[in-house]
Amino acid sequence: MKIIDSIQDVQDMARGATLLGTGGGGDPYIGELFIRNQMKKGRFPTIIDPSEVDDGAFIVSVFHLGAPPPFVEQLVSERIQLEILRRTEVLTGRKIDGLICVEIGGFNSTMPLAISAMTGIPAIDADGIGRAFPRMEMTAFSINGIRSTPTLLMDELGNEALINTENDRMCENVTRSICSTLGAHLTGAGYHMSGKQMKESAILGTVTQTLEIGRTIREAREAGEDIFGNLLDSLNRGGRFARILFDGKIVDIVREIRNGWHWGKVTMHGLSNPDDELVIELQNEFSIARLNGRPVTMVPDLISVLDRESGEPRTAESLSYGQRLKVLGYSADPILRRPDSLKAVGPRCFGFDEDFRPIEELFQD
What we know:
nine-stranded mixed β-sheet, about 375 residues, 2 domains, 17 strands
């Protein structure tokens, strides 16, 4: 078990979560502030390795859902975070033994740590996606048969809904309707599982990966070293594939909030060759990147956008005309690339008329 007692570590984890959030997941800075406030009160998050969790433990995911922009417009209620845990224990008749991130990207990776600090319940070093995705059925939990329901939803005013549906896609549809009605930002609790189920279905080690990513970027920047070279060295360990896809500036952004999601398209032109054009389409998260019309990375593989000078990762809602950025492509965890997983998280699930091709194949074309 690891206690997070350094604000620097929290900042590094938020930075790493932004990169793994692939543009979405909500701004982790809000969660960072929440954790720092708990630290001022002498409360610190604890992270537990999955191997330390008893097979019979009761694990719950507490998450936030909706369009990312409202995440930075609404204050997070400490009362609601505690109440949704209490209501879940009443609903199930069980004491919660551990918290797990539904996704490691953005806000949803920092808030379980904040709740851990408030309650003393450990956060598990794992999550359900290894990145961020916009829909509730797009998790390794759901793919492996761990239902999101019963799902408890609450808004900041205490309005509450309990969802029980025949499958997680229907839960997503019902939840999204409620979310749109209640201001496009809700706190949820679901994906009830045992410790054994968690070990068999979760993407492991991702909470500490956010710390490693964030620390790598910061230390390279402070030492005047090659930020992107060091970052790629770190990401390429363990058999995964990471490359810089593009170095350019934003020349156009189209975005809208539709059905509770942040939709958009980002167009960039190359700095060394202005005729090169990269277009990134997004649905909360960056979904597909096309260089001069040809795909170079697509879901479930990760697309992340970073400031070309500082290496600081950017969320989709923070992008603006004229920014000079580097675009990173990173292979997804192997669990998400399985044929059964691609039926839930592949390009066709996002409305693209093409089958998944891994980044290492596309990068070589």
